[in-house]
Amino acid sequence: MKERPNESASTADFEFNALRDAENYRRAILKLFAPHLQGRVIEVGAGVGQFTVLLRELGQIQHLLSVEPDSRFCAEFRKALPGQPLLEGTVAALTDPSQWNGILSINVLEHIREDENELAMYANLLQANRGKLCLFVPARQEIFAPIENDFGHHRRYSRDGLRTKLERAGFKLVHLHYFNLIGYFAWWLNFQVRRRRKFSPAMVRLFDRAIFPLGFGFESRVSWPPVGQSLVAVAAAGGGSGLSP
Length: 245
Description:
By secondary structure, this protein is α/β, with parallel strands linked by helices. The chain is built from 9 helices and 7 strands, in the order H-H-E-H-E-H-E-E-H-E-H-H-E-H-H-E.
């Protein structure tokens, strides 16, 4: 994983401070991935530790290594979670593939220009134990907004495009589906049409507490949507296609 580009203070505020109250959103993502994370797990792109706190609650994870290339985020991470193992750098520094059973990557791959090389590194780290990659990325290039250039995003992903990249990297797909249909339209309206460059913390709280739980409840219990703000993928190292319907 290459380092994220230098982000402005406002971008860091957007990604971490403004989204600090999105507790239901974070827990929903972990609910989808938790059954696939066990043993020795790498958290790629740990940021300031907002997901790390939730991962540490999962009893089936015996050892969690957080990885973050940005020194500013690492400093905040260490203050918040002083006892948590943290690698300041990238997964390229990890050389023993026999150690790992899982990798979690949430909103990281879009920051990396050579994303297929990154996926190949994940596959190599998980190959020995047939470990699983839990991957969460922004979806649908048609809603790519100016604010994403501020973040250093290179792309959003389609279902077919992500499936192809994962299989080429050597993964066998377990689940792949869109996530958060309401968020798709909210993102399009606020950041592509209105071209806003930041979130309102008050609106984040409203969405997380009153709107998102209804949408996620329907999607997770009835049917995943035909499009969404994000894509959820679970893939096992080993190659070939074993995609669940």
